[in-house]
User: What shape does this take?
Amino acid sequence: MKHRTFPCAASRTSGACPWRRDAAPFEFGAGDFEAMRETSEQPDASGDPDDYGRAAHGQMLFACHSGDPDHLHAPDADVACAGWLASGVAMAGNLRVRLAVAAGRLPAKCLTPREGWPELYDSYDEMVREKADPGW
Assistant: This one.
């Protein structure tokens, strides 16, 4: 699974990772975050194991807002956001992430912040409250 290895800092062309507590607020609209909420919540499969498996396989990842710098215009340019992965939200709410770790397609070390990392939000709702521009 393609993923970032450190939460993005602000650059000339884009803002910092929204999972960073030190990132500027209001770089993204509230609607953008609502559209991404499903990346951080368990899929609803109404108790049917087959539906649950299909829901997990198709669950989206919270992609890095900067994309893959080596393939920005490729069809598979999305890479999982390092801040989202390390916040704990991905492992708790995204079955696709848990399956990738179990299958060895995503290193477990990606799921916790490492030394020298910025402080990250602990929940999706907290991050959205602090970062989403309600006017968008």
